[in-house]
Amino acid sequence: MMGPNGAGKSTLLKVMAFLESRTSGEILYRGQVIPKGIPTLELRRKFSVALQQTLLLDGSVFNNVAIGLKLRKLPKAVIKEKVALWMDQFQISHLAKKNAHFLSGGEAQRVNLARAMIVEPEILFLDEPFSALDFPTKIKLMEDFKQIIEAAGTTTAFVSHDLMEINYLTNRLAIIVNGEVKQSGPTQRVLEHPNPATAPFLNEWKKFYSQSS
User: Looking at domain 9-20+50-212, which of 3.60.20.10, 3.40.1080.20, 3.40.50.1110, 3.40.50.300 is its CATH number?
Assistant: First the structure.
């Protein structure tokens, strides 16, 4: 999902992830309408969220990655095995004992994403997780993350302002303007053939991107 500041991208993502209540409309999951109100714990556990702010807990990287499994009360041996697997996937095994509050931005975001993926969500919601990272760190993490997501086959809803991220990570794109989805479809088709409602935004962004590249 892409669009101007204040268009409603993050709000829509949080509503889809049941972090905020919707004021109108319906949310469907596997063809079934989800009743308005607090979703069941069983349903919530099918989703995972990673935000721009990592919001890591005080304590070790290991415990941060493991928190979702501990809340599900999995056996310690299973937790240890899964944490080792996902720390290896995100190349943070060497940080296992380090306090999460003393990580670099890139390290913290790797921990954040590993924490989200370890519970094996059916849908992963991402709200600009790469935007605060310096360029080299962003590129490396995006490369690793794309491989991980493709291997896991996890459906991912992704909010970004960055055309490079959109081009690299997504196969479908929705442009939101003034709280409404004005155009959606395969990413390249939307970018190459904007409609009258999305062309002004996309053209300005392409101009900015070409000047800053």
Answer: 3.40.50.300
